[in-house]
């Protein structure tokens, strides 16, 4: 099957590719309860050597810059307590950690979580962290622009492979809160 975005020749329904996904992502696909059928979650095999956004879109289609998203793990502190959350924004933007994220989480301080903490707590590989399969008790902040995008390319939990998910499904993930202005345009 041809993917609805990018130049991927072999897109397969994610439920048929559970062995290609990390355990938390495969479990999330297996137990999905949203209104978007999981057969619309597609898996595409990609080369992990070109997983970074700039090289990736050059290889798989420049239009993907407007149709792909990044998921980042954020550590926040409030009243001596630390907690983790995740944020999803389109790849052409950056997460407003010190403004929108900090206020949304009611935190005194927020910053990107260290790589070893992010990968250890998610069970996913660095460069492949996805909102599909995150711990259910984490807040998941999703930029409204992601939800408004017909199909979004996102990590699969591994550096190899990506998921293509209908944008509206992101609003149905556990802990999801749709936030306007979470992603801010990157300077040119």
TrEMBL record:
Domain of life, source organism: Bacteria
CDD domains to which the protein is assigned, alphabetical: PA2301
InterPro entries referenced in this protein's UniProt entry, alphabetically: YbaK/aa-tRNA-synt-asso_dom_sf, YbaK/aa-tRNA-synth-assoc-dom
GO MF, one annotated term: aminoacyl-tRNA deacylase activity
Listed SUPFAM superfamilies: YbaK/ProRS associated domain
Domain YbaK/aminoacyl-tRNA synthetase-associated: 49-171
Name of the molecule in the record: YbaK/aminoacyl-tRNA synthetase-associated domain-containing protein
């Amino acid at each position: 099957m041809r993917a609805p975005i990018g130049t991927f020749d072999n897109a397969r329904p994610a439920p048929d590719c559970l062995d290609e996904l990390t355990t938390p992502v495969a479990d999330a696909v297996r137990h999905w309860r949203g209104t978007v059928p999981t057969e619309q979650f597609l898996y595409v095999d990609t080369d992990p050597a070109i997983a970074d956004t700039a090289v990736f879109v050059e290889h798989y289609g420049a239009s993907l810059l407007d149709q792909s998203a990044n998921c980042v793990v954020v550590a926040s502190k409030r009243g001596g307590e630390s907690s983790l959350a995740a944020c999803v924004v389109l790849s052409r933007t950056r997460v407003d950690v010190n403004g929108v994220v900090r206020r949304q989480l009611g935190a005194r301080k927020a910053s990107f979580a260290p790589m070893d903490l992010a990968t250890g707590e998610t069970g996913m590989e660095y460069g492949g962290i996805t909102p599909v399969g995150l711990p259910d008790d984490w807040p998941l902040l999703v930029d409204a622009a992601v939800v408004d995008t017909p199909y979004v390319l996102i990590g699969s939990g591994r550096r190899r492979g990506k998921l293509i998910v209908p944008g509206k499904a992101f609003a149905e993930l556990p802990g999801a809160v749709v936030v306007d202005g979470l992603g801010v345009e990157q300077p040119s």
